[in-house]
Write the structure tokens for this entry.
Amino acid sequence: MSQREAEQELDALASSGLLRRLRRLDSPQGRSVKLDGQSAVLNFSSNDYLGLAHDPELIAIFQEYTARYGTGSGASRLVCGTMSAHLELEDAMAALKHTQAALTFTSGFAAATGTIPALCKKDDILILDKLCHASLIDGARLSGATLRIFPHNDLDRLEQHLDWVARKRGVDSRVLVVTESVFSMDGDTAPLAEICALKESYDAMLLVDEAHAFGVLGPSGRGLAAALGLENRIDIQMGTFSKALGLSGGYIAGSRPLIDLLINRARSFIYTTAPGPALAATIRDALDILTGTRGDALRHSLARHRDTIIPGTPSAIIPVLLGENETALQASDALLKAGFLVPAIRYPTVPRGSARLRITLSAAHQDTDVAALKTALSQIITDFASAPASISLS
């Protein structure tokens, strides 16, 4: 692509309200942040749900393990990059998720794009919720399998796809249903019990991405599957360490044969340098925080903040649908001027015509922060929502 062609494409993005630019932070991730050297604003844009991204205890742990293990792994896991810290973390994750084994990846994106093509090939069938994360969609496309999409949380359409597969599939064809437990842009939950029943009726496998539920929902923050008592009915549990744990990386938890197969076939695992051992060891210790009394207290604070905005809301994600790209951008700018960092989310992250503000809450927020946000949002909805807003703050 020439420079002129790139400029033309950028101009087209700008004219449609879809141009994105990197936003520089001049402070650590936290309750408040500084943007481009400006005054601090309250941060309602981060996935740091438990406020651990700049936690003094985790910082000290990370420093200690860096001194012990060094800064990098030096190689991929199958060469010489598998260190004791990686294996200890994976054993801890398997125990936490009540599975036989677990495998860690450099990111949640790598977990998805490595796992799905490792399990499904061109003669297999993948059935995805329409609102699945881009990493799951990309993993599905990379697999070469036949794709079927069902409207968001539409159990009738999911069953229609499964029935079609039952009549079409070959003897050796695999069928994998893919969904999230908490959806990243809407903050709602999947009907996991019903999906489990359907996949079992039609002899399919099920992958559930718990990225936005892990650490937040369920006993000890184990996720929505644990909250519903469904862990032993889900074939592949996926998630990340980059949200509630405030660190980075992804995981897959499941049977021992599944994990051994991924070690041999998941390209995003095989062909990349292993995450630093100090990071793996810190994640292992962060799991103790997550599952202990402190984790319970943080989840309690987060739940209180959620109920302040919308009582009974299921997750830390609250969308305010505004429709048009420019409207969402203007509303986000107005909130920023008022001292709140709340991003505008636009196509292709969400469907066309459903641009929105995406509010994310953290246990690090103070009660006064959340009350002030609620007041500011009421004004934003009055000023910018041309139709009834997606949430009510009354």
